[in-house]
Amino acid sequence: xxxxxxxxxxxxxxxxxxxxxxxxxxxxxxxxxxxxxxxxxxxxxxxxxxxxxxxxxxxxxxxxxxxxxxxxxxxxxxxxxxxxxxxxxxxxxxxxxxxxxxxxxxxxxxxxxxxxxxxxxxxxxxxxxxxxxxxxxxx
Length: 139
Fold this sequence. Notes:
- By secondary structure, the chain is an alpha+beta fold.
- The protein has one domain (2-138): endopeptidase fold (from Nostoc punctiforme) (Alpha-Beta Complex), CATH 3.90.1720.
- The protein is 37% helix and 27% strand.
- It has four helices and seven strands; from the N terminus they run βββββαβαβαα.
- It has helices at 53-57, 73-86, 101-110, 116-138; strands at 2-3, 14-18, 24-31, 34-42, 45-52, 63-65, 88-90.
- It has a seven-stranded antiparallel beta sheet with strand order 1-6-2-3-4-5-7.
- A hairpin with a 5-residue loop joins strand 2 (14-18) and strand 3.
- The radius of gyration is 17 Å and the shape is globular.
- Mean pLDDT is 79; it is low at 1-5 and 118-129.
């Protein structure tokens, strides 16, 4: 469920804002005012860090997906600590060579790697590839 930022994000909430390029940038609230964030640092790597809500938001309004009831907050924090200890992770916007910000936020929250944006992007690329192949066959 996406709600406004009234009251701010609570631990376990997934937050997002418009990305600097296309789509949305995701993070997850670990504590009051603290967001786990990844930042691409070149090549195929991203830096894992914590930032304030204000730093994460960059002046945009935040979308907040409230954490599901019964979320294992201890497990969530343990997964966050695992990533923070690594400091950097393989990065891949569409999930081919690594993980994007949405993969990370959803994994920390649930223990499952998933990214709806990556799924949509991959489906779009597959559709384009099929269309190109069909056009070539039709010639």
